[in-house]
UniProtKB/TrEMBL annotation:
Belongs to the type-I restriction system S methylase family. It holds the Pfam family Methylase_S. GO terms for molecular function: DNA binding. It comes from Bacteroides thetaiotaomicron (strain ATCC 29148 / DSM 2079 / JCM 5827 / CCUG 10774 / NCTC 10582 / VPI-5482 / E50). Residues 15-194, 208-358 form the Type I restriction modification DNA specificity domain. Keywords: DNA-binding, Restriction system. CDD domains: RMtype1_S_EcoKI_StySPI-TRD2-CR2_like, RMtype1_S_Fco49512ORF2615P-TRD2-CR2_like. This is Type I restriction enzyme specificity protein. Gene3D superfamilies: DNA methylase specificity domains (3.90.220.20). GO terms for biological process: DNA restriction-modification system.
Length: 381
C-alpha cells in the first residue's frame, strides 16, 4: 500500500505515517442511566447524534440526562473527543464515528464509546479519516456478533490508519468542511421545499365549495400483472420502467423491453407496508399486480387528482390485516372534492414547478455527496 494519497495539495510532500487509534485516543464506554433520569438535564449523546449530518455540538444533541458530578467527570465529553457507535444491526454501520466540537460539557450514552483526545490531531480531519474506505474496512473487520455487530474499546484501539502532518490535516479538514457546508445547505433547501409544498397543500388542495366525486365515477380502475425479477433479468433491451409496491426509486423495480400502459395515470400501492401510497405516472410503463391504476376521464387533470388523492388514501388502508391493503373496490369508493378543470390545471402547475425544483436540488445533493465520497477515497490512504 502506498504511503501517500492519490490526491494531494501541492504544498505537501512526504509519506503519511501509520498509527493505531490508541496513540491518539483513550477509549471509554458511556453512561447507562435508568429511564427516570432521561429527558432533562445535560445534553445526552446517543447513536442518533453520531449518525447525524455535521459535527456534534452542545446545541444539536437530541437527548438530555440528569447526571451526578462524578458521572459528569467520568462520562463528560470535551472539545475534540471522538464518539463511536458500539453496536449495529448491520456490519456496515458498526463503529461509525463523529466528533464533539464544543467547549460546553455534555454526557455520552451506553451505546457509545468515547475516544478522549490524548494525541495531537485535527478533530475534524479525524472525523473524515474515520469515514474513509480503509477506515471503514478495518473498523468493520473488528465487528463481531450474531444478531448485532459490536465493536469494543480493544477493537478500536487496534485499528491502524495513516496520518499526515497536523498542517496537512487542517488543510484537508478545511477543504472537506466546505463541501459539508454545501451539503447541509442543500439539505436545508430540500427540507424548505417540502415544508412549502405542505403549506401550499393545506391551503389550495381542499375546499368545501368544490364538488364531491367518488373515484369510480371519474376513473377506470385496474392494476398490473405479475412481473418477476427473473422476467426482468431476461430482457434484451430493457427500456420501460416496471412500477411495483416499493416507494424508493420512484417505485421502479426494473425495466422491460415493452410496455403495458401509455399516457397519464395514477398508480397506488395495493399491498404491503406502503399500501395507499400514490404516484402520478406519465409515459410508457409497466405495473406489477400489487400496483393499482387509475385512468381518469378527460374532464379531470390527472396530476391534480393525484395530489388530492395522495392525502386521502391513508385513512382507507386496511391496517388490521397482517398485510395492509388498499384494494380496487375500496379505492373506487373513496370520495374527494375537486374544482373545475381550469382551476385544477392552474393549481397543478404550481406543484409541477415545486416538483421540478425538488428534483433539481435533490440531484445536486446526490452529486455533492458523490463528490465528497470520491474525495474521501482519494485524499486519504
Amino acid at each position: 500500500m502506498s504511503d501517500v494519497p492519490h490526491l494531494r495539495f501541492p504544498e505537501f510532500s512526504g509519506e503519511w505515517e501509520e498509527h493505531t487509534l490508541s496513540e491518539y485516543l483513550e477509549f471509554k464506554n458511556g453512561l447507562n442511566p435508568d429511564a427516570k433520569r432521561i429527558g432533562s438535564g445535560l445534553p445526552f449523546i446517543s447513536v442518533m447524534d453520531i449518525l447525524s449530518e455535521g459535527v456534534i455540538n452542545y446545541d444539536n444533541i437530541r437527548g438530555k440526562v440528569n447526571a451526578t458530578e462524578k458521572e459528569i467527570e467520568c462520562f463528560g465529553v470535551k472539545d475534540g473527543d471522538l464518539l463511536f457507535q458500539r453496536s449495529s444491526e448491520t456490519l456496515e454501520d458498526v463503529g461509525r464515528a463523529n466528533v464533539y466540537m464544543d467547549n460546553r460539557t455534555a454526557i455520552y450514552g451506553g451505546f457509545v464509546i468515547r475516544g478522549r483526545k490524548i494525541g495531537n490531531y485535527d478533530p475534524l480531519f479525524f472525523k473524515y479519516l474515520l469515514a474513509t474506505p480503509l477506515a471503514r474496512k478495518r473498523t468493520c473487520r473488528m465487528g463481531a456478533g450474531a444478531q448485532h455487530f459490536n465493536i469494543g474499546q480493544e477493537g478500536l484501539s487496534k485499528i491502524s490508519l495513516y496520518f499526515p502532518s497536523i498542517e496537512e490535516q487542517r488543510k484537508i479538514a478545511e477543504f472537506l468542511s466546505l463541501i459539508d457546508e454545501r451539503i447541509a445547505t442543500q439539505n436545508k433547501i430540500i427540507e424548505d421545499l417540502k415544508k412549502l409544498k405542505s403549506a401550499i397543500s393545506l391551503n389550495v388542495l381542499h375546499s368545501d365549495k368544490w364538488e364531491q366525486f367518488k373515484i369510480k365515477d371519474i376513473a377506470q380502475i385496474g392494476r398490473g400483472r405479475v412481473i418477476s425479477s427473473i422476467e426482468i433479468g431476461q430482457q434484451k433491451s430493457p427500456t420501460y420502467p416496471v412500477y411495483s409496491s416499493q416507494t424508493s426509486n420512484d417505485g421502479i423495480m426494473g425495466y422491460l423491453d415493452d410496455y403495458m400502459f401509455e399516457g397519464e395515470y395514477i398508480s397506488w400501492t395495493t399491498d404491503g407496508a406502503n399500501a395507499g401510497t400514490v404516484f402520478y405516472r406519465n409515459g410508457k410503463f409497466n405495473c406489477t399486480n400489487v400496483c393499482g391504476l387509475l385512468k381518469l376521464r378527460k374532464e379531470f387533470d390527472t396530476h391534480f387528482v393525484s395530489l388530492v388523492l395522495a392525502e386521502a388514501t391513508k385513512k382507507y388502508v386496511s391496517i388490521n390485516l397482517a398485510n395492509p391493503k388498499l384494494m380496487n373496490n375500496t379505492m373506487g369508493n373513496i370520495q374527494i372534492r375537486l374544482p373545475k378543470l381550469e382551476e385544477q390545471k392552474r393549481i397543478s402547475i404550481v406543484f409541477r414547478v415545486l416538483q421540478r425544483l425538488w428534483t433539481v436540488h435533490n440531484s445536486l445533493l446526490t452529486e455533492y455527496t458523490k463528490q465528497e465520497q470520491y474525495l474521501l477515497s482519494q485524499m486519504f490512504i
